[in-house]
Amino acid sequence: MPSSLATLIDTKRVLLCVGSGGVGKTTLAAALGVAAAVRGRRVLVLTVDPAKRLANALGLKAFDEHVQHISIADLAAMGCPALAPLDASMLDVKRTFDRVVTRYAKSPETAQKILDHPFYQQASTALAGSQEYMATERLYECVTSGDYELVILDTPPSEHALDFLDAPRRLIDLFASPAFRKLIAPSSRVRTGVFRSGSVVMRGLQRFTSIEMFSNLLEFFGHLADTFDGFVERARQVQALLSGPDAAFVLVSACDAVSTDQAESLQTQLRAQGMEPSAWVVNRVLACDPALADADPALPGRIAKALVAIGADAAGGDASDAEQCAYAIANVARRFGAMAKSDAACVSSVTARHGADLTVLALPRRATEPDNLTELFAIGELLAQASQQVPAVA
Ligand SMILES: Nc1ncnc2c1ncn2[C@@H]1O[C@H](COP(=O)(O)OP(=O)(O)OP(=O)(O)O)[C@@H](O)[C@H]1O
Ligand SMILES: [Mg+2]
Predict the structure, then answer these.
(1) Looking at residue 54, what is its pLDDT?
(2) Is residue 371 lining ligand 1, measured as CB closer than 6 Å?
(3) Which end of the chain is least crowded, N or C, by CB within 10 Å?
(4) 328: in domain
């Protein structure tokens, strides 16, 4: 029997919300954070790029990785009866990279040489994969800091989430590869021979980039080589954490075929890497009666009569106004019913296909934007209290 979200919140050390763009990953990460605080766990929500109002609600400012602390009293003032405070933070790639270099360089002097290197400014933010790697690095820092019982990680949209989860492994592959090691080794014959000034290779390269730029790059990697063993070891630890029993993945999708397909493909790819998703939240499910879609053709007539009976036509209108109004209401009800029917079908299909392996939950579309703590609390409670699959909304 798959674990309920409440069990995941109560027992895991890391929860990761993954899914395609705009499906509600950040909102759910924050709501699960509130639910964990309500249940008394010391929790940190690590967000990637929250929408402005949600960031404000969590006290976060752009490009600031400082941990924001929301006390039990402040949570109570927002209607969240929490037993533990809620911490939230945003990822800052550059600062995490600085800490990684300082930690793994063999000496403070080498660390300084790397940090001061002109190429470092570019590399620390623009190197392919650096954002993804640093996010997992920061996650690991927070999980092992001893400050938290649970860290909830919001991730970028699925196209990047896999890069993100795969980053430690790719880093291990690159840094551990003999060719790369040969290239960056200071005494490497490859470097001194092939890349010596005036060599065929260097003359060739000069056509694309300046020699100075290229030797700067080699020099940079030469310094960085010092840190590689540390990087590789840490990447292995991150990989082990994410595929181990302390981590759980929550897939998030909307009620549409595209995001459902993407969540399914994410599930397959996660499994291929030894990471097993534990729950699937189908978000923004329209919570109205699907039977309205097939409403009785006599419905507008009945609504018109009801309008006349309550005097809704009294303010200058007549029975035909009431009738027009009734048809408009019946049409809207039918359309909402059709949308609810299609959303319920989507939830049922996800449940039928995956309900045996993971907990499938349908989270209703909220009437107001969930960008404040009160709303996040309501969502967190809905998710934590739904102990088993919810095949469809009433
Ligand atoms: N259950 C819900 N009811 C109503 N609105 C919702 C619900 N869940 C999320 N939203 C809204 O949907 C929008 C997208 O949510 P969110 O930013 O959490 O998605 P995301 O997956 O993190 O997006 P991105 O991939 O861009 O990071 C936001 O405006 C959010 O307030
Ligand atoms: Mg987001």
Answers:
(1) 81
(2) yes
(3) N
(4) yes
